[in-house]
Design goal:
Four Helix Bundle (Hemerythrin (Met), subunit A)
Length: 108
């Protein structure tokens, strides 16, 4: 049995364009599936609540499309508030985000 500790590879500072696109595609597909489920269930007294959910999902889909443009422009992963790189961990959780956490707090 080896006493060596396993090496942990350092995380990259930025996602590659390919990784960003994969994450954004996954997010877009998830949101489209949610919209389809809401459309299929959209009957009865819950209609107003479902409409609000649809609006939120459509807003997120728009943000995802804007993130694809940032990937193409080479600005993906750069905070639109302070122009510093957005941590990869944040982009893994919220791949369409435009802001680092401190700037997000000031815009919210």
């Amino acid at each position: 049995m080896s006493l060596e500790t396993p090496r942990i590879e350092p995380r990259p500072e930025r996602l590659t364009a390919h990784e960003a696109r994969q994450r954004l595609e996954h997010e877009r597909n998830s949101r489209l599936t949610q919209l389809q489920a809401i459309d299929e269930a959209g009957h009865g007294s819950e209609k107003q609540m479902l409409s609000a959910q649809k609006d939120t999902i459509k807003r997120v889909l728009n943000e995802i499309e804007e993130a694809f443009i940032r990937v193409d422009d080479g600005n993906y992963g750069i905070c639109q508030g302070c122009s510093t790189p957005i941590p990869v961990e944040r982009l893994e959780i919220l791949p369409y985000t435009r802001f680092c956490v401190p700037c997000q707090r000031t815009t919210a």
